[in-house]
Amino acid sequence: ELKRARAARGLPERLLGCGVVMPGPFDFEGTMTVGSTALPGWTGRDVTALMSAALATSVTVENDATAAAVGEHLYGLGRNLRHFCLVYFGLGLGLGLMLGGEPFRGAHGNAGELGHIPAVPNGPPCVCGREGCLERHVSPSALQETLRQAGVTQVDAASIAGLHAEGHPAIAGWIAEAGPLLAPVLAMLE
Predict the structure, then answer these.
(1) Model pTM score
(2) Which of 14, 94, 109, 161 has its CA 20 to 30 A from that of 37?
(3) Which residues contact 121 (CB under 8 A, 6 or more apart)?
(4) How far apart are CA 30 and CA 74, in angstroms?
(5) What is the pLDDT of residues 43-96, one digit of tens each?
(6) Cβ(88)–Cβ(65) below 8 Å
């Protein structure tokens, strides 16, 4: 029965497991997503159980920033480093931590969720319940929001790169706001 299920899903017969990368923050054990960066429709869902059932194999869920740090440690500039931080601009703003050559996840897989550090007093509300979180100002979604407010309708990566190359004032303004907010966090990490 398992062979037929895997064949129907186009999975190899000898699938040993599956890794799933998702944006955090996680509710617990890396299995339930919460917060503004969570993928729509997954909030409060047990991702590990759902994916395991769908794929008929064991599934490990990892925070996207942590997974990026592991990849950098295995194949990138971090291969010769035992300790480093990787600032991750994904759906939000995260941080992958490698300590002693191992990923550091924290108690609930949320170590490095620096996007939810309050950065602007009385700033815009965040779905995490705080106001003025760093992610609301310094993240790809914050840049996209800034561009939409400036009347830009194409906010995909290629369009943003083109606007940046042209020196678009909304991007320059966003950088001028985001840089001073991110700088003290980077200094603290250093």
Answers:
(1) 0.80
(2) 161
(3) 131, 132
(4) 21
(5) 777 888 888 888 878 888 888 899 999 999 999 999 999 999 999 998 889 999
(6) yes
